[in-house]
Amino acid sequence: MSKLTISNPKVFISYAWSSKEYQEKVLSLAADLVNDGIQVEIDKWSLKEGNDTYAFMEQSVTDPSITNVLILLDPQYEKKSNDRSGGVGTETQIISPEIYNQVKQEKFLPVIFERGKNGEIPKPIYLKGLLHFDLSKPENYDEEYQRLVKRLYGIEIMKNQN
Fold first, then answer.
1. Contact 152, 142 (CB under 8 A)
2. What's the rounded mean pLDDT across residues 116-138?
3. Residue 64: pLDDT above 90?
4. Which of 57, 114, 118, 145 is at a distance of 20 to 30 A from 136, taking alpha carbons?
5. Helix (H) and strand (E) counts for the chain?
6. What is the mean pLDDT of residues 93-122?
7. Whole-prediction pTM value?
């Protein structure tokens, strides 16, 4: 884990455009993070008509001022990532070498945001080996969200082992 605290965390949120309800849930998380003092880059807020979506994704993933990339996982994200399709596929092509080429990386954080129909964790192949945060279960959401916020500020956290 990080040993230095981060006074001004800035995150990019990578997610799949699933249902309208899912997109609202993503924006709600983004708003909560902003309320907790974290700067958020997300397409819905940052991209305007005429902007280059691919340049935005590439810049957001590689920008050194972005302290973390939150990869919000749901079945749609997993499928698009593994198939390398759509915006998620493009982000996967940018992110996966960053993960594969660094034995120890702390920038890219998988977040389980919605599970599959049978409760399975929808993790793309290139993220299988990474530990994750789990915001998919309402009964654990607050505790996991607080762990995530602490991690974004570089505060040492311990995983509940249940």
1. no
2. 86
3. no
4. 57
5. 6, 5
6. 76
7. 0.80
Alpha carbon distance 28, 143 (integer Å): 17
User: Alpha-carbon distance 17 to 121, whole Å?
Assistant: 18
Return the pLDDT at 95: 67
Q: What is the dihedral of CA 90, 38, 148, 136, to 10 degrees?
A: -60
| pLDDT above 90 for 126 | no
Mean pLDDT value across residues 63-77: 87
Nearest to 2 by CA among 160, 159, 155, 158: 155
What are the residue ranges of helices labelled H in 7-140? 20-35, 43-46, 53-62, 75-83, 86-100
How many of the other CB atoms lie within 10 Å of CB of 122? 21
Sign of the dihedral through C-alpha 29, 92, 44, 86: negative
Phi, psi of 129 (to 5 degrees): -85, -5
Q: Which two tokens stand for residue 52?
A: 């280059």
Q: HSE of 45 in the Cβ direction (CA atoms, 13 Å)?
A: 16
